Amino acid sequence: MRKIYIATHGDFSKGLKHSLEMIVGEAAKEIQTFSLYPWESATDFSEKLKKELAQNKVDDYILLGDLFGASVVNALLETTAFKNVILISGVNLNLALELLLAGPERLTEEEIQEIIFQAQQGIRRVTIENLENEEF
Hints:
The protein has 136 residues and is α/β, with parallel strands linked by helices. The chain has a single domain (2-133), classed as Phosphotransferase system, mannose-type IIA component (Rossmann fold, 3-Layer(aba) Sandwich). Helices cover 43% and strands 17% of the residues. The longest helix has 14 residues, at 42-55.
């Protein structure tokens, strides 16, 4: 089974989950979120998650953080010592949706890179001229 955690500064993670529920319905209900607030420590969340990982070596965990090099992703970096953890920074709706729709099987490194690539394709400057020249 695959467990997806979205960890961000503020309520961004909750908003992403809500948007995913609007798009894919029940498939997004199992996503867990972590919202870091100024009075909290991302390390506390990381420690709690490491305890869960130590007890569950069967499920795959995909951790989606917001900013590369910032406190949330940095705190989660230690979780990548577990073989069943994938940590990806720069979470957006495209990335989370691609991962939800990827199916329940364990992802290969090539599949992860393809999912990241596909998610990046949604980041574009959009103008009428661009849309007229775009192939869909």
